[in-house]
Specification:
The protein is an all-alpha fold. The chain has four helices and no strands. It has helices spanning 3-18, 25-36, 39-50, 58-63. Helix 1 (3-18) packs across helix 2 (25-36). The longest helix is centred in the first third of the chain and has 16 residues, at 3-18. The protein is globular. The relative contact order is 0.22.
Length: 74
């Protein structure tokens, strides 16, 4: 997927969860990504985050430790 599309999708998820009550929005962003993004997409996002995560919403960046890294063979 293009980096631009990935950024847009991740930021849309963050925008939704930012509007929800509670103080666990980052964990909820990560849970959504873990549940609905295929391993290849999660790997691409985590690699992008490792390089600085330019243009990603702060909530996506905060979710990074909670995003499950897929196995290398996935």
């Amino acid at each position: 997927m293009s980096p631009e599309k990935m950024i847009t999708m991740a930021n849309q998820i963050a925008t939704f969860f930012a509007s929800q009550p509670g103080d666990d929005q980052a964990e909820r962003v990560a849970a959504h990504i873990n549940d609905f993004w295929e391993p290849r997409m999660r790997r691409q996002l985590l690699t992008y985050l490792d390089t600085g995560g330019a243009d990603l919403a702060p909530l996506v960046i905060a979710a990074q430790p909670h995003i499950a890294a897929p196995a290398e063979s996935a």
